[in-house]
User: Fold these one by one.
Assistant:
Number 1:
Amino acid sequence: MSIDQATVRKIASLARIAISDAEAAAMEGELNGILGWVEQLGEVDVTGVEPMTAVIPNHLRLRDDVVDADPLTGGGRRDDVLANAPAPQHGFFGVPKVIE
Amino acid sequence: MTDLTNLTVAQIRDGHRAGDFSAVEVAEAFNANVAGAKALNAFIVETPEHALAAAKAADADRAAGTLKPLSGVPIGMKDLFATNGVQTTAASHMLEGFVPRYESTVSAKLWDAGCGMLGKLNLDQFAMGSSNETSYFGNVISPWKRNDGGNAALAPGGSSGGSSSAIAARLCPAATGTDTGGSIRQPAAFVGISGIKPTYGRCSRWGIVAFASSLDQAGPMARDVKDCAIMLENMAGFDPKDATSLDMAVPNWEAALSSDLKGKTVGIPKEYRLDGIDPDIDAMWDAGIAMLKDAGAEVVEISLPHTKYALPAYYIIAPAEASSNLARYDGVRYGLRDLPQGAGLQDMYAATRADGFGPEVKRRIMIGTYVLSAGFYDAYYTQAQKVRTLIARDFEQAFGVCDVILAPTAPSAAFGLGEKTADPLSMYLNDVFAVPASLAGLPAMSVPAALNREGLPLGLQIIGKAFDEQGVLNAGLAIEERAGFNARAEKWW
């Protein structure tokens, strides 16, 4: 399967990355090169093979149902959470206006 | 007085404990080396005050008789680990200026063990690369030069290229690395040091900037096998904050080190004998086989039939996970925001991500987005995960007849900066021997084994059974003792 520039622009839009026409043109070749190369996986007979879900057998745990059991990941850390936000406002994350 | 920066982690720990020198002297010696090595560009941020504070505490602890396992040992921290109060960038513009308010589990364990931090080490952007040429903060330069009289700047490998370059240049005795598809082992091989990626889940991923979560695994890089064992003991351990953390006791790897391989069987995978491979690599591999035989091991040929499909499977799975993990960089919660005049939310996302990510990161996000998109998911992603099952099965079957596997770490010695940047695929192929163990979650390490005809280091890789870091370290030690690798880069920086 090879992709064209319109597909490149669609992928970029899905990935929320702005690209120029020149970048789309360059990326068309690069992505086709990589996708053409991974295509060889189609040769492998995978009849009856389950896709891998966990590389090392492990069971998923639930953490204890305790408030603030781990203070690092518990609540009450608004200022820490906002410390690296580019535009915090009034104790919230700031975003551009989303409704007219 | 001996140059303290030539000491290994074990020598610093033991010498400090014995009172041969103070931790402050050690920290000052390494701080001076770091400050004098700007030409290597190994550090993004230098933290001499952190190293000194830890050293003062170590000296006080010695006086008080309360020494910790790594008191007095300063290390380098790959800038992929969140460090409380110290900028953490993943070598990206996106996270430039990001100062975490928390500490990654692995780095916290090392500070608790008494280590000090010399600085945050440069890497490939978001750990995506094999040469450290994708960093927003510039290339890391290897301290090594070819012996051809030329002056070509060589790649330190990647993604842990700052770690490898800094250790080889004696800027730190050990450093953290992370390995998603070879990012500890390949850079270690390129500069003639050791590095181990433990079993997936040994080291907590909490606080490590995520690339591909089913593959990412932290591990140590150092000058010898014993130091790797010491460091790994102080990095590993169960962490409830990481859902895939292994709930297992951390073995005392250092104490159990033994290079006597009697009764052990070493597998040599025939599929790793690539056509047209560098004869120096083949010769080093054969020498490694002889060394393990000499250590008492039996050697058998094994087959890992799906080896050639490991890289293409990796280049679907890793970008797919990356496209999901990196969706968090939205210009809202942390990191860069690019808000063009009059732009709405969607335009802000797109502008922020266009500005904040480098070309290789964008390429991988795009590939990942494509292979996960409707209509292509089964053909690419599900197929790759099935192939991954087959690759893991190959190893499982091989470990029915052998205890560890010996192979080269990389198909070449260090290449020159710029030699592989024009074609992403040629760069990807440098991880051909490293990626299969990553896909199977197995412990694997690189130890320096020889110099090639250009005078550059080559590494041998040992791959072990899940949870058998000890078997890997022991085989590594057997090679280390016999290879007698003690070459080092001549100082030019």
Number 2:
Amino acid sequence: MTRRLVTTLALLLAVSTSSSARAESPLTELSVFPPDVSLVTSRDRQELVVQAKYENGLTRDVTAEAKLSVAQAEVAKLDDRTLSPVANGTTSLKVEFGGRTVEVPVTVDQAEADRPVSFRLDVMPVFAKTGCNMGSCHGAARGKDGFRLSLFGYDPAGDHYRLTREQATRRINRALPRESLLLTKAIGEVSHTGGERFTEDSEYYATVLRWLEAGAPDDAGELPTVLSIELYPPGAVLDGEGETQKLNVRANYSDGTNRDVTSLAYFSTSNDNSAEVTEEGVVTAGARGEAFLMARFDTHTVGSHFITLPKGLEFQWPNPSQKNYVDELVDAKLKKLRIAPSELCTDEEFLRRVYLDVVGMLPTPEEYAEFMSSDDPQKREKLVDELLERKEFVELWVMKWAELLQVRTVNNRVSYKAMLRYYEWLQERVASNTPTDQMVRELLSANGSNFKNAATNYYQAEQDTLKVSENVAQVFMGMRIQCAQCHNHPFDRWTMDDYYGFAAFFSQVGRKRGEDPRETIVYNRGSGDVKHPVGGATVEPKFLGGAVPDVKGKDRREVLANWLASPENPYFAKNLANIVWAHFMGKGIVEQVDDVRVSNPPSNPELLDELADRFVSYDYDFKKLVRDICTSRTYQLATRTNASNASDDRNFSHAMLRRVRAEVLLDAITQVTDTKDKFRGLPLGARAVQISDGNTSSYFLTTFGRAKRETVCSCEVSMEPNLSQALHLLNGSTVQGKIAQGGLVANLLKEGKTPIEVVDALYVRTLTRKPTKQERDNLAAILAEESENPQPVLDDVFWSLLNSREFLFNH
Amino acid sequence: MRFNASRRGFVQAGFLGGLGITLGDFFRMKAAQAELKHYESKEGTAKSVIFIYLPGGCAHQETWDPKPNAPLEYRGPMSSIESNVSGIRLNQNLKNTAKVVDKLAICRSMTHGEAAHERGTHNMFTGYRPSPAITFPSMGTVVSHEFGPRTAIPPYVCIPNQPNEFAGTGYLSSSYAPFSVGSDPASDNFNVRDLKLPGGVDDARFARRRRILDTVNTHFTSREKSDSLDAVGSFYDRAYEMVASKDAREAFNVSAESDAVRNRYGKTQAGARMLLARRLVEAGSRFVTMTYGGWDMHNGIQASMNRQVPAFDQGFAALIGDLSERGLLDSTLVCVASEFGRTPKINATAGRDHWPKVFSVVMAGGGVKGGQVYGSSNPTASEPEENPLTVVDWATTIYHCLGIVADKELMAPGDRPMEIVDGGEVRRELLVG
């Protein structure tokens, strides 16, 4: 009844809102979901969804308007928009709309037979759908009001036991099934803290009742499992507030059958401001924006990408030039969203940006002069190539990797010497441009002394088996699987079986003392298992989302490493490509970069896929990937926005203003003031980027958010501004002290520069540009007040430049 | 949801054609004029809050909610003592606190459903359950947003540092971020760095620097727009004020307190932090968050408690007593909270594990009625029994004391109005009069 109401409502809306913009745009595609129908047993049903796509990119749910007819009424029949079986055979469903026709093949099998009710396949999903096994209800660790179900159903046998045996069958009544507490509570007939979960005339009630009437059996023998679920339609572009689109969910089972599980799926949206969804799966558009609609059934979660545009929006694509595939894929998304990208940044902006991003330094005055005076149309590309060959590029990425691999000293575990060896190992790999897959394989399968084969320090920085496996998933696959340690992951596909199967790869890491008391030898023990906390069974190693490999007689870590750093692992290349992308663009395609999950989809999946594919085809040479990114138009856009892209912050339609990260900022101040820093273990004059130990820091670095590498989380690097930073730049020893120590202004005056020429030189050094006329005039006026002794004023100009927002930000 | 409906109605009713504005403009205008639920924030009974946070999940059984009559495996190894309010017992370590219970509201029925540290912490700092779509501002940030600074002292301060990401600004501008003191007030050479002008720079020269800096900034800030850019600007403004104000600088100087006072609080981490919190509130801070200890006691809970609670006990009792003697307690709300409590039964390693279903928080001063236990847990401290106190109601009550109606909507990105707290009720029984 609810559904009928919704359909009527949709019809009404469709009529009342059809705008001229849509009427003008021709229909380009008619899709029917699911694209094929297979009905097995007399109980099977399949609802259909019809979607129209127009030339202007908009889509519309035309299920109610389309004409549906079944070719052979003796095989299947249509009740409104739902197909049900009549007799075995094949036929087709004809769908007509707007002059187009789509035929959907339909097969019917076992039409005579009724499907027996199954506890695990039918009843458990009701508990999930109606919220019974949520964490706040009976899914809590100790249950609720004396009755416990496993959280999201991770323990079906336990749930069956508790329902049928615990408290002497108080919960079910085999003689009078309708009197079972399970039902009377659920419909609110008997006092229930959780209130009414479903009504007596609902499908949910019927399912549970049928199971009770059958004697409340658990399932015997091998049961089909859900292999995957499909969510339809796969995407939609809705024309303004109030538009609706019905979703449909189909589950595919291991016995080859499928079922329409729309009424049993749990729906959610990533952004209910732009697209709300009801429990029946009806999406309603709201404000302009994007939303990811998700359906969960069994342990599977899948999503569909929705865009809501303002109704009748006029938009002209500016057709900007494209430098490479990056621009093509970014533009494809922007066109869909009707956002025009910003213009290219100026040469000065590009010069500063690319130096900070690629080598973590500012261009020198000489480099500035050379670049600015060159009229080579290829000069930006050439500069990128040149910078990629510099040692500072390596150093910057050694630092990034050192964060991911937690290079730091740990009391009684990783000595300073071991840490240093670990750092040197990493440095050598990055400097020699070792393919990333090879480096990761070496790291994860490392055995031996943590002095001699320093990669083994990876297993010293963290020793707990579960924690190691969580870190590996987070760093190399971008996934946080922690939740699945105690229950099936509620927002992702990972189950406890997946979690412990993955952890089992690290269950045989042996550690023993070396000769040196600071030395540890990591080796393969060849024995040791992980036990599943539910049932206590030994869990065989299983790749996350992959196969169960043969590990007999092998080093499990080696088996894992070979899979992990290969194209067989769908996450590895994507994850690394995303990390590289985020460094240069200020935001990941998946953001945060280490929070890949079904419910946090990439903003541009096609772009991420392509970057990953290229990375693989480049033999994991990430320098080539960097080149693609930095020479794209997308990287070279201005930060300034236009009317259409001002509010976009995830589709790369303009450059993002980014505060310069702690190490690079300190190095920049040191560089422009002509001074030197001294850090532990490094010669005088080394840069903060080169610090090997996560535990070596300074007030400046800590205040500006340097990562201590205590965790692998990308959130350790903080870019947030705060009051302490302002106070330190204003009054602290860094800026004040370095200006005095470097004596730059005095030297420039000594060279015979006039005060205003000194101002010019300071601007170029710090901001990579000359002062504007207005700035020059203002500063000349201040200088004129102290014409006798210009140096203190010029020192103050220098101080101001280092305190300026333009200096603090990469733009 | 009612409000969603009315917003939608408003949009449908609005005729855009002919007005010569784009839809983007329209949404911005809508945001500005606000179809928002709006309430003026006016200072309430609590002018300031001292938010004492015990990270890790403090066991309620070994602090505020002992169960002397429960079976040993629930009761745990420790004993309890009588307080100055008859019938209210506390853990044996809270000897000094037991003498100020007449000023405390001990809430023993706090409850939520998040058993992971970060999720529980999120609840207690923001008043919201974590959401995949939006990051919420902390209470300190909201207070800073609603009232702004009172004096040159930052309105929201963390001692010694911002304890976690949820104590940050969420969807509000980072200019409402807390000021982190940066070092531990218990250390001998404690001072807050960079509050004074460097040598050789007098006020006149500093004024010239600011003039030049304004010149340099104008070009960039007129061309670029971003929240984080504005935030840097506002932090510079705050820094100028602090540098110029002797009172503000002095507020951080714990050593200006007499030895008697310092000894009363205890020269411990807990004591020194609480003393600094009092000085900051006195000097005009609106929300001071301080953390102390690590309370994730999965193993050997008795020894851990014996190590950490005495310093807390001395400092906390001194703070309540001192605020009261100075006449500040009525206008200062002191809260003690943690992300969750711990499991009813002692586990195999003599500790307790995570337990959000019931735990205790404490409130005192700022309009809260002292000498009461609010709500209760059941006999095994495993479920709330009377007056379960939800996160939203607890947060709403704190905001109420401050004079903020928590039903007020603030604008989150995407022109998305969000209540400060979604659907909380003020628990009047906790309040005076």
